[in-house]
Amino acid sequence: MAVQKEITIYDIAREAGVSTATVSRILSNTTGVKQDKRNRVQAIVDKYNFKPSAIARGLSETRSKVIGMLCPDVRNAYYANIFMECERLAFEKDYTLVLNNTFTRESLEVAFIEKLIEQRVESLIVCGGLADWRPLPPRYRETLSRFAKRIPVVIAGKCDMENCYQVCLNHAEGMRLAVKHLATLGHKRIAFLHGYSFIYQTQDKLAAFRLTMEEENLPTRDEYIVDAGEFNEQSGLMGMKRLLSLTEPPTAVIATNDLMAAGALQAILRLGYAVPNDISIVGFDDSLITDLTEPHISSVHYDYALYGKMLIDTALLAIDGQECERFTMLPTSLTVKESCRKIEA
Q1: Distance in angstroms (rounded) separating the CA atoms of residues 267 and 244
Q2: Which residues pair with 153 in a beta bridge?
Q3: How far does Cα 266 stand from its chain's mean position?
Q4: Between the CA of residue 207 and those of 77, 132, 203, 217, what are the distances in Å?
Q5: β-strands 298-301, 333-335: how paired?
Q6: Residue 295 CB neighbours (<10 A)
Q7: Nearest-5° Cα angle at 305, 300 to 306
Q8: Direct distance between the N- and C-terminal alpha carbons of the chain, in angstroms, rounded to an integer
Q9: Of 344, 343, 313, 345, whose CA–CA distance to 328 is shortest?
């Protein structure tokens, strides 16, 4: 009897590898749960002779209708676009989306995950931050893995955790489009201005940059690949200044996001050059920033509405115990604006 009193619906869910909502539906004999999950949960229930009390059953069947979300800083237009789409779609499904800004600090990310679980969120969407690191910090990885056994965790990106769902953008495809566009315009001296090298997006984009440059028979010069640190305007400005200080500066620059592209544009203008007459620029994210600059910046475009839909749909399907893809990659495209020009051979 002592063992029975210690076993909870959370223990059953963790051992079965499903969500507590799924266990609740199985215990209440609700339809819509796959038979293999039903069998797995029932086997564990029988194993412990688990019989939830009426109060516990009532609590387990009470849906919070809340999804948690973590992002580094929603002031970044990229994260703001994703959050707004997810929030809108969650609301349409009668769910509330709770956002926490972590500023990529491990103590905050871990604390927010713990807090959201205490608040009985039904799923967690992790967008950026430590989830983008390669490798994952050990403490963060353990925390995320532990809670992925209790509720569905959806990563907006790539992550080497098998028990998390992943919905990511095809950043490599976006880089290929950017390089090929500049090559078509006659550019041979193309630079890549990026943030931290241990971020998966940086690694994917850099690999695609090198490969596409090779395919276009263009030289990849080490001095044209600049790790400027943080993914913000100041880093873009400082990184661009480094490129412009070279004896032979590039004629075109691809920045890893629009913030860095805007910073690069400022550096070019401050040093007396012009865009696109002297240097062409391409960014990533196709955010509002690209239309606030002069000239407007060409940028790799994401379908934020589709991205938000896939994140929310994945979370809701997993909450309901339904079959859904563990890994989904979404296409990208290139929005051509005013920041690139054709040059003579």
Answers
A1: 9
A2: 124
A3: 27
A4: 25, 16, 6, 16
A5: antiparallel
A6: 17
A7: 80
A8: 83
A9: 313
Reduce the secondary structure of the chain to three states and give it as a string: CHHHHHCCHHHHHHHHCCCHHHHHHHHCCCCCCCHHHHHHHHHHHHHHCCCCCHHHHHHHHCCCCEEEEEECCCCCHHHHHHHHHHHHHHHHCCCEEEEEECCCCHHHHHHHHHHHHHCCCCEEEECCHHHHECCCCHHHHHHHHHHHCCCCEEECCCCCCCCCEEEEECHHHHHHHHHHHHHHCCCCCEEEEECCCCEHHHHHHHHHHHHHHHHCCCCCCHHHEEECCCCCHHHHHHHHHHHHCCCCCCCEEEECCHHHHHHHHHHHHHCCCCCCCCCEEEEEECCCHHHHCCCCCEEEECCHHHHHHHHHHHHHHHHCCCCCCCEEEECCEEECCCCCCCCCC
Is there a contact between 132 and 157 (Cβ–Cβ < 8 Å)? yes
> Cα–Cα distances in Å, from 174 out to 72, 169, 294, 316?
22, 9, 23, 28
- For 329, the token pair is 């990659």
pLDDT digits (tens, 9 = 90+) for 129-156: 999 999 999 999 999 999 998 899 999 9
Tokens of 162: 């098998």
Show pLDDT as tens, one digit a residue, over the chain (345 residues). Answer: 334 446 777 788 888 888 777 887 787 766 667 888 888 888 888 888 777 654 445 445 567 899 999 999 999 999 999 999 999 999 999 999 999 999 999 999 999 999 998 888 999 999 999 999 999 999 999 999 999 988 999 999 998 888 899 999 999 999 999 999 999 999 999 999 999 999 999 999 999 999 999 999 999 999 999 999 999 999 999 999 999 999 999 999 999 999 999 999 999 999 999 999 999 999 999 999 999 999 999 999 999 999 999 999 999 999 988 888 999 999 999 999 999 999 976
d(CA 18, CA 42): 12
